Amino acid sequence: MTFGEKLYRLRKEKGWTQERLAEQIGVSRQALSKWESGSAVPDAVNILRLSKLFAVSADYLLDDAFESSDATWAGRPSGQARRPASWAVLRTAAGVCAVSVSLLGMLLLGILSSAFPCVYSISPAGVEWTRVYTGLWGFLKTNHLEWLFALCGVLLLAGAAVLCSPVLKRLRDRRASSPAPDQ
């Protein structure tokens, strides 16, 4: 749907004449008529006035791919609304935080294991072998912190998955949309 068609439809939904709408945004009726017919396009200031007046986004008015004012993107399957860019920023921030916290936790455990070296040995009764843990693993076992190290590992994987998911989705979409090679 073109800008002119959208403007005409929005004006008719309100029950306004061209004169009334032109008066409200401060232009001539002839200018409005040209916008609706598609022979002219308003400037940015008038686009903003129209978007505020009709409570629609400027994207909706200007982009022919928007078919309805509820911000549904025509190129997406029905029922999937276009997410604002802030979702991508929040997802990236969450991924970076998760990776940072997990790496910081692992680094702190490594530093503590160097500062407070521990030796942890297991020698079950009735067997001839003894297992000895030193370094980081000795520190973790002595202080019963294996769970914390595992939690840091899971958080690292989750953060990496959140950061990589948009890239993997684009690759999957590109592969699905590319034609199959001839065999």
TrEMBL record:
Entry GO MF terms: DNA binding
Stored Pfam families: HTH_3 (PF01381)
Domain HTH cro/C1-type as annotated: residue spans: 7-61
Keywords in alphabetical order: DNA-binding
UniProt cross-references to InterPro entries, sorted A to Z: Cro/C1-type_HTH, Lambda_DNA-bd_dom_sf
SMART domains: HTH_XRE
Organism superkingdom: Bacteria
Protein name (database record): Transcriptional regulator, XRE family
Organism: Intestinimonas butyriciproducens
Taxonomic lineage: Bacteria, Bacillati, Bacillota, Clostridia, Eubacteriales
